[in-house]
């Protein structure tokens, strides 16, 4: 036995080291880009303040608000309306930021690439020693190359995403008052959760419920629903309801990448909620193994993004992450089951 123990230990250590290398290789470019982005945001604050003192404050106010909300639609509209001005450049920069924080590296790279020719004194002319081997490059150029490298790495390493659901997998469509969201279920990898979701959808359990919780931070982007308390109950009860039972978690190897359906958990318990679920709109890998992924968003991603960008009530006691105007699930329909 002793002769076999040491090789086994060495193998395990190599596997752990490999995972760590994969993690570092996967995220260092994003962290570096975000660090530079944060610096640029601080510079932007200073720059916009200077512009305000130069009788341009009212023109920058809509951009400042859109940046705070992370609303890409508003940023795109501002960019178009302010074409040819410094405001348009900073709107483009902000679009890249939002895309990067959502895990959309290719979209971020395109936005930053569009800034490489800008004459803006901060984005296009200020050179910093942040290029390869300390070369001085502009913020726009650095972010464009870093995002492009990240997008290329992700395309070459699909293992960081989940396999697609089977072609004949059933779908549940959530018809909301903002539009439809289509969810394709992993009935093969998470049969308990998938079949329960189908059952509840067919019964109309979700009809009239709200997306009662929205978290939109750089590290967590989710929208949560499925609580019957949200139909008529007070917000203090939201997040506490269910069908009267919970579910056994399913460790299926699926991860919380962007665009997936996962089961919420009541409190810090090890069980899954019987009905509450959340959709990931950014990578939330710290939730891996803690929650069961059992579906993928295959339609209506823009509707989910709209819900994510909704205004959130200021925290009040234990009430947090509650939308000012929660989006309602009007009805559900099941296809293929």
Concise summary:
With 337 residues, the protein is α+β, with helices and mostly antiparallel strands.
Descriptive notes:
Mean pLDDT is 84; it is low at 1-21. The chain is globular, with a radius of gyration of 23 Å. It has 337 residues and is of the alpha+beta class. The protein has nine helices and twelve strands. Helix content is 45%, strand content 15%. A hairpin with an 8-residue loop joins strand 1 (127-128) and strand 2 (137-138). The strands form three sheets. The chain has an eight-stranded antiparallel sheet. It folds into two domains: 2-159, no CATH class; 171-335, Cyclophilin-like (Cyclophilin), CATH 2.40.100.
Outline type: globular
As a percent range, the share of strand residues is: 15-25%
Helix content: 40-55%
Which CATH first-tier class of the largest domain would you pick?
Mainly Beta
What layout of secondary structure does this protein have?
Elements: H1 2-69, H2 72-81, H3 86-101, H4 105-113, H5 121-125, E1 127-128, E2 137-138, H6 139-156, E3 171-176, E4 179-185, H7 191-203, E5 213-216, E6 221-225, H8 229-232, E7 246-247, E8 260-263, E9 272-273, E10 277-280, E11 293-299, H9 301-308, E12 329-335
Antiparallel strand pairs: 1-2, 3-4, 3-12, 4-11, 5-6, 6-10, 7-9, 8-10, 8-11
Helix pairs in contact: 1-2, 1-3, 1-6, 2-3, 3-4, 4-6
């Amino acid at each position: 036995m002793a002769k076999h123990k040491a090789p086994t230990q060495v193998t395990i250590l190599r596997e752990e080291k490999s995972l760590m290398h994969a993690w570092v290789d996967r995220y260092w470019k994003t962290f570096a880009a975000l660090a530079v982005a944060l610096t640029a945001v601080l510079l932007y604050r200073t720059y916009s303040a200077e512009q305000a003192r130069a009788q341009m404050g009212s023109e920058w106010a809509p951009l400042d608000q859109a940046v705070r909300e992370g609303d890409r639609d508003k940023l795109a509209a501002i960019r178009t309306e302010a074409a040819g001005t410094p405001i348009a450049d900073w709107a483009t920069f902000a679009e890249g930021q939002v895309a990067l924080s959502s895990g959309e590296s290719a979209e971020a790279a395109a936005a930053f690439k569009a800034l490489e020719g800008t004459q803006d004194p901060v984005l296009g002319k200020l050179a910093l020693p942040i290029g390869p081997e300390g070369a001085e490059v502009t913020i726009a150029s650095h972010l464009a190359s870093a995002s492009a490298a990240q997008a290329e790495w992700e395309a070459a390493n699909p293992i960081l995403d989940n396999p697609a659901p089977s072609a004949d997998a059933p779908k549940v469509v959530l018809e909301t008052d903002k539009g439809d969201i289509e969810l394709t279920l992993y009935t093969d990898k998470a049969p308990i959760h998938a079949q329960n979701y189908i059952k509840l959808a067919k019964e109309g359990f979700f009809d009239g419920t709200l997306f009662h919780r929205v978290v939109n931070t750089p590290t967590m982007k989710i929208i949560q629903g499925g609580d019957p308390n949200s139909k008529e109950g007070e917000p203090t009860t939201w997040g506490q309801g269910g069908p009267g039972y919970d579910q056994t978690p399913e460790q299926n190897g699926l991860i919380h990448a962007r665009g997936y359906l996962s089961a919420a958990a009541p409190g810090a318990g090890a069980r899954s909620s019987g009905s509450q679920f959340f959709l990931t709109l950014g990578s939330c890998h710290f939730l891996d193994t803690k929650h069961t992924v059992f579906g993928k968003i295959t339609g209506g991603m823009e509707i989910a993004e709209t819900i994510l960008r909704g205004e959130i009530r200021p925290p009040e006691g234990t009430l947090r992450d509650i939308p000012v105007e929660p989006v309602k699930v009007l009805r559900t329909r099941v296809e293929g089951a």
